[in-house]
Every structure is written in structure tokens, then in C-alpha cells.
Amino acid sequence: MLALKVLVVGGGVAGPALAHWLSRIGANVTLTERSPQMRASGQQVDLRGQGVAMMKKMGIEAAVRAVSIHEPGTQLIDVNGRTKAFFPAAMGSTGKQSITSEYEIMRGDLVRILYGLTENRPNVRHLFNTTIERFTQDDENDPNGKVHVSFRDGRQEDFDLVVGADGTGSKTRAMMLSPDDPDPRRLRGGYIGYFSIPSQPGDSDRFTFCHLPGGRVARVIGTRKDVPDLTRVYMQMRGKDAVVDAASKAGDLAQLKNALADLYQDGGWECERFTNALRHAPEADDLYFTPFVEVQLPPGSWSKGRVVLIGDAAHSSTADGYGCTWGLVGPYILAGEIATLLKQKSSPTAAVVPGAKNYEERFRPVATATHGGSQVAESLFFPTSSVGIWMLHTVARMAAYWQLDQMGGLSEKTSKWQLPEYPELEREQGEA
Ligand SMILES: Cc1cc2nc3c(=O)[nH]c(=O)nc-3n(C[C@H](O)[C@H](O)[C@H](O)COP(=O)(O)OP(=O)(O)OC[C@H]3O[C@@H](n4cnc5c(N)ncnc54)[C@H](O)[C@@H]3O)c2cc1C
Ligand SMILES: *[C@@H]1O[C@H](CO)[C@@H](O)[C@H](O)[C@H]1NC(C)=O
Ligand SMILES: *[C@@H]1O[C@H](CO)[C@@H](O)[C@H](O)[C@H]1NC(C)=O
């Protein structure tokens, strides 16, 4: 049988993970990334629960361990810098989770490890600095049907399957949906921004959060530390702010830096030092900023014929801590469902179209479990009054004592959910 020809659009986390699984079943995979090179930026990400099991299945546990960050835990402090509650990192394989997971890794390191899986595979082609401009596809019942793709550089090629792994703002998704379908991105009313600054002696190696009273919106400032010379500063905001919105829309780095610095400058703790660095230190040019967004596609619309979405493109929930975990699990399920059908069906289309549907059916309830958040949790975690912050610290101290954080943010059903087994993926094609 002719190899399944697949185009994966987006070389972040989900894209290279899918390339890995599909290359194992002998597919001919093209992985395109819009950036001129691997986009190995970003701060700390974590692999939790099923993400840890997934990483082991992919055979990258040792590689991840070798670059993982040893964060002793998470603490809440007050505006005078005093620790109010401490949650030690989750350890061991009991499935219990904490705010700091056992596998904390820089996003760039994870992306590099995932590319490494297919770098030397003859059946995987990595294309940088290009993307797709448009596509059309044949009727989904046509057993020999293809997706006809035009690339930005003018090339045209046909594929049996096109996968959008191009993140929350996915262009592949926009092309797959009808022009009159609503934008599935929902703003959750808040922002997150992070950047690096030169470190100082005394900067904590714990993931440190400080809630700031007052302000136009609810403000949290945090720090993390993964290298000696730099401290990473996190700003989390709840609510809508016109100045921040305008700066974000303008797409001007200096304007955005100033808007965030103005908002935090007088917040207390080390806000003055952090905002000075944000305005003036070149280290802070790595500022990454995004509103809280959720991608909520209607059921049954993760795929259309031979075009399917994975990762943030399908189910993003910015900063809920599961982006990378679900970004690794989804590709495995898609590849597994297709591989299972490929064995039974006579044509690629006959496997790809229902395989994509099966993938959504199996994975959607898990991947969207944290969508919508919880109003109670939100008002508890983003207090703006001194009394509200005092209450949060009190509750957190009790929670730390009773280790309530280890129950994690997932419902019992989702945290108990087990990765499906796919014998077709266990065995390398060509192995006996
Ligand atoms: C630069 C960056 C920094 C991040 N930092 C963090 C972080 O610090 N902490 C955290 O928890 N999460 C972070 N995330 C999000 C996290 O990586 C994802 O939630 C998770 O890994 C799911 O991955 P994904 O592959 O679906 O999407 P992403 O990781 O967003 O990858 C999407 C990829 O597609 C590429 N792309 C976009 N559009 C196109 C196009 N039209 N054609 C071709 N390629 C395209 C992008 O350049 C990117 O490489 C970051 C994402 C990015 C892109
Ligand atoms: C990327 O592609 C564009 C044209 O599509 C070209 O002008 C540019 O030089 C390329 N950049 C790199 C780094 O190859
Ligand atoms: C995969 O497809 C590309 C593009 O059509 C082609 O050039 C290449 O020869 C194919 N590779 C294999 C291993 O079949």
C-alpha cells in the first residue's frame, strides 16, 4: 500500500509529537513551521498526570529528566515578601499532582526533544519559513480523495490528511471552518505576561506568587527561577483593561511594556524593581503576552473530512497548566485511531475521515474538562481587597497543611482517565 501522505501545519508541541507517531506507522509526513527556525521559546511548562505517562510512552523520559527544572515548590507571599503558604512539588508516580509538577521543563527544551524524535527519519520532512495559503478537498466519500494544498511559496501538493497544529490562533482552523462560522476563541477576561530580568541574590527558587491589593484589575505577580542569571517574572491579571488592550492590539513592544509596568509599578513587594527591569533591561525583550483565551469548537467540528485539528488549535485553554499535557496526548490518540482503521480499510481516506471523528469522540471530554473555569475559584484566586487576599492566604495555608492542592484542578473522572492502548503504534512499522 502507498504511504499515507500527511501535512502537519505548526511545529510547536503537538505538531512534532504527531509527526513522531505517524512516522512510526510508515506515513510520509511533512511538518511545516511558519517561523524561519524551530520556535523554541517560552517559559516553564509542565507535564502532568497523563502527560507524564505519554512522555514515557514516547521514550523521552530520560531526555526530559535531563533538562527538567528542580523547583522545590510553590509559595504565596504577601506584599512585604513574607511567606504565607507553601506547597511542595509533587513527587513520585502516585498520580498526585501539585502546582509544581514533577516534570517542569522549559518549553524550548521540550520542543527540541520532540523535533529530535523525527529529525533523522527519512519519511519526515521539516519545512521552515513557510505555511499553507489555502486548500480544497475532494468529497469525503471519495476513496481516492485528497486535500489540495497551496503553500505560501507558491508550491502545490496533494495530501491524504492535513493536520492543523498551529496553536490558539490557528489559520488552518479558520480555513477549515466556513467563513460564516463564529470565531471559536472566547476571551476569559484576563491576561498573562512573562519576561526575564537579571536576577539578584535572594530571588527565591520557589514558584512565588504575590497578590496585590487594589488596582484597575485584579493583579498577581510571580517569579520563577530556572537559571542562575535570570529571574522570570509572571504577571497575571483578571478583568479587562482598556490601556493593556490598546497596547496589545497595537503590537508595539515598548508600548506594551509600559502599559504593564504602569499597572504594576506601585503594587508593593518588588514591583518597582521588576517594572524598572521590564521597561529598561534588554533581558525583558522576551516578553510574551496573551489574553486568557479558550478555543470552544462545537462538538463534531474538530475535523472536516481529511482536515483535523490538534493541540491548542482544537481545544486551547490558555494557562490552565494542561496545554502541553493535552498537546502531547491528542496526537497520540489521532495517530492511534487512524492506525487502527488503516489496517482494516482499503484506502487512506476510509481510515482518515472516521479516524479523525473517533479521535474527537474519545479525547474531547478530557481535553475540554477545564473549560469554563469556575466562578468560585476565580473570585477566590483573584481577590483585590486586602481582606480577600488575607482570606486566600488563610485558605491556602490550610490547603497546604491538608495537601489539598495534590487533588489537582481536574475532576476525579478526568484525572483517572487512562491513555488508550494502540497496538498498531507500539510496534515500529517494519519490525517483526
Ligand atoms: C512562543 C510560545 C511560547 C509559549 N510559552 C508558554 C509558556 O511559557 N507556558 C505555557 O504553559 N505555555 C506556553 N505556550 C503554549 C504551549 O506551548 C501550548 O499550550 C502547548 O504546547 C500546546 O501546543 P501546540 O503545539 O498546540 O501549540 P503551540 O505550542 O502554540 O505551537 C504552535 C506552532 O505553530 C506555529 N504556527 C502558528 N501559525 C502557523 C501557521 N499559519 N503556519 C505554520 N505554523 C504556524 C507557531 O509558530 C508554533 O510553533 C507557548 C506557546 C508559544 C507559541
Ligand atoms: C523566508 O521566506 C521569505 C519569502 O517567503 C524570504 O523572503 C525570507 O528571506 C525567508 N527567510 C529565511 C530566514 O529563510
Ligand atoms: C514523501 O513525499 C515527498 C513529497 O511529495 C516526496 O518528495 C518524498 O519522496 C516522499 N518520501 C518518501 C520516503 O516516500
Q: Describe it for me?
A:
One of its GO terms (molecular function) is oxidoreductase activity. Keywords: FAD, Flavoprotein, Oxidoreductase, Signal. It is a single chain. With 432 residues, this protein is an alpha/beta fold. The chain has 2 domains: 5-69 and 101-184 and 296-370 and 412-426, FAD/NAD(P)-binding domain (3-Layer(bba) Sandwich), CATH 3.50.50; 189-292. It contains 15 helices and 18 strands. Strands 5-4-13-14-15-12-16 form a 7-stranded mixed beta sheet, sandwiched between helices. Strand 1, helix 1 and strand 2 (28-33) form a beta-alpha-beta unit. The model has no long low-confidence stretch (mean pLDDT 90). It binds flavin-adenine dinucleotide and 2-acetamido-2-deoxy-beta-D-glucopyranose (2 copies). One 2-acetamido-2-deoxy-beta-D-glucopyranose binds at residues 36, 129, 153.
Q: What would you call the shape?
A: globular
Estimated helix fraction = 25-40%
Q: What's the story with the biggest beta sheet?
A: 7 strands, mixed
Identify the quaternary structure here.
single chain
Bound molecules: flavin-adenine dinucleotide, 2-acetamido-2-deoxy-beta-D-glucopyranose
The CATH class label of the largest domain is Alpha Beta
Low-confidence stretches: none
- β-strand number: 18
**CATH topology value of the largest domain:** FAD/NAD(P)-binding domain
Provide the structure class: alpha/beta
Total count of domains: 2
Q: What is the CATH architecture assignment of the largest domain? A: 3-Layer(bba) Sandwich
Tell me the Rg in angstroms: 22 Å
CATH superfamily of the largest domain: FAD/NAD(P)-binding domain
N-to-C CA distance:
18 Å
The total count of helices amounts to 15
- Mean pLDDT over the full residue set: 90
> What fraction strand?
15-25%
Spatial strand arrangement across the major sheet? 5-4-13-14-15-12-16
